[in-house]
Design a protein that fits this description.
Blueprint: H1 6-26, H2 30-54, E1 56-57, E2 60-61, H3 64-94
Antiparallel strand pairs: 1-2
Amino acid sequence: MPTASLTEYLFASGLLFSIGLAGVIIRRNIIVIFMCLEMMLAAASLTLVAFSRAHLQDGLPDYDGQMLVFFVITVAAAEVAVGLAIIVALYRARQTVDTGDLKTLKN
């Protein structure tokens, strides 16, 4: 079974990141924006793992990038916990998750 090259991994990562960035810029729903941010983190993780696998030391992959992915996953988990709490609080206060309706932080 052939493995994908570094270029293919980077292309897939760039595509995921571009879709996530477009979602953050274009969409108005906070939950969709939040999911697009997570997609961008996943793209960054894929890039780290791809470069880690491509950089060989003594015939073995360099695991520094893969270890860094664990920190990205930890940050993403903390972001999910805090972000969803903020979204729920905003929804309870304003009864909407549309960013167009959230112009000020005052009630």
